[in-house]
Amino acid sequence: MAYEIDKPEEQWRSELTPEEYRVLREAGTERAFTGAYTDTETIGVYNCRACGAELFRSDTKFASHCGWPSFYDPARTDAVELRTDRSLGMVRTEVRCARCGSHLGHVFEGEGYATPTDQRYCINSVSLTLVPDGPGQAGSDQAG
C-alpha cells in the first residue's frame, strides 16, 4: 500500500531512536507496563511518533490494565489501518498509522472490554506522542 508519508528505511532509521524504529518500522512490541503513557490521565491528543498524524484522543483512553495504553476508538476511522497479523502462531488484528504505515499495536474485540465499541486498541507508548490540551498542560503528564 502507498502511504502519504513514504520514506526509505534508512531515513526512518536516522529519524527514530532504535526502540522507536524496532516498534514502529519492524512491528516490535515494548515490554508491558514500561511505556510512558500506560497510566497517563493527561487530556490531549495522541499522535503518531513517526509522522505526527492524529491517532487517538484521551477521551477514548481507558484503564484496561493490560500493560499498554488502551483506547476504544481512533480519533477518526481513517486514522488507522487494520491488517491481519498471523505472527506468533495466532491471528490478531494489527493497527498501523494510515498516513505512514508505522506499526502501533493491535486491536482486540469482545464484550468483556466494557467500552462503547467493545474494542481495545492496545497501543505501544513508543508509537505515540501525547500533545496535551490547553495552556499549562505540558509537564502535567501522570506517566507511570
TrEMBL record:
Origin superkingdom: Bacteria
EC number: 1.8.4.12
Cofactor: Zn(2+)
Entry GO terms, CC: cytoplasm
Keywords attached to this entry: Metal-binding, Oxidoreductase, Zinc
Catalytic class of the enzyme: oxidoreductase
Catalytic activity: L-methionyl-[protein] + [thioredoxin]-disulfide + H2O = L-methionyl-(R)-S-oxide-[protein] + [thioredoxin]-dithiol
Single GO biological process annotation from the record: protein repair
Gene Ontology MF terms: metal ion binding; peptide-methionine (R)-S-oxide reductase activity
UniProt cross-references to SUPFAM superfamilies, sorted A to Z: Mss4-like
InterPro entries: Met_Sox_Rdtase_MsrB (IPR028427), Met_Sox_Rdtase_MsrB_dom (IPR002579), Mss4-like_sf (IPR011057)
Domain MsrB: 9-133
UniProt xrefs under NCBIfam families: peptide-methionine (R)-S-oxide reductase MsrB
Protein name per Swiss-Prot or TrEMBL: peptide-methionine (R)-S-oxide reductase
Source organism: Streptomyces boncukensis
Gene name as annotated: msrB
